[in-house]
Amino acid sequence: MQVNEEGRGMLRMVETVASAVNLLLAFTFYVANANHSTSGFAKTGLGFLAEIAFLVGLAGLGLLIVGRRKIKSNLARLMLIMVVTIWNQACLIAFLTSLIPFRLP
User: Fold this and answer.
1) Cα(103)–Cα(74) distance, integer angstroms
2) Residues 6 or more apart whose Cβ sits within 8 Å of residue 36
3) Is the dihedral of CA 37, 59, 76, 24 positive or negative?
4) What is the model's pLDDT at position 6?
5) What mean pLDDT, rounded, does the chain reach?
6) Quick one: CA dihedral 22, 28, 30, 32, positive or negative?
7) Distance between CA atoms of 47 and 30, rounded to whole angstroms?
8) Degrees, nearest 5: CA angle 70-84-16
9) Tens digits of per-residue pLDDT, 4-25?
């Protein structure tokens, strides 16, 4: 019984930390987009794709946290939460990379 309670506590802690990390990623996305909108450069197709993929990742994280009772295995749920968080980090990196101004020679 005690091991089960510790597992639930650990799972809630991981969900809380993953939610906080994803909220910070969303804030970073917002700040980068706000800074870029005043720069005068046009956004590339990769930037738009990264925005959409990031929103899909946030929606997936929300579904994982809200629908936690549907996934029976705690390990599977933890792995999905980590995959979604890494996905959102990759989307943010792709978005930031797309904002780098360049000139063709």
Assistant:
1) 49
2) 43, 99
3) positive
4) 66
5) 84
6) negative
7) 13
8) 70
9) 666 778 888 888 998 899 999 9
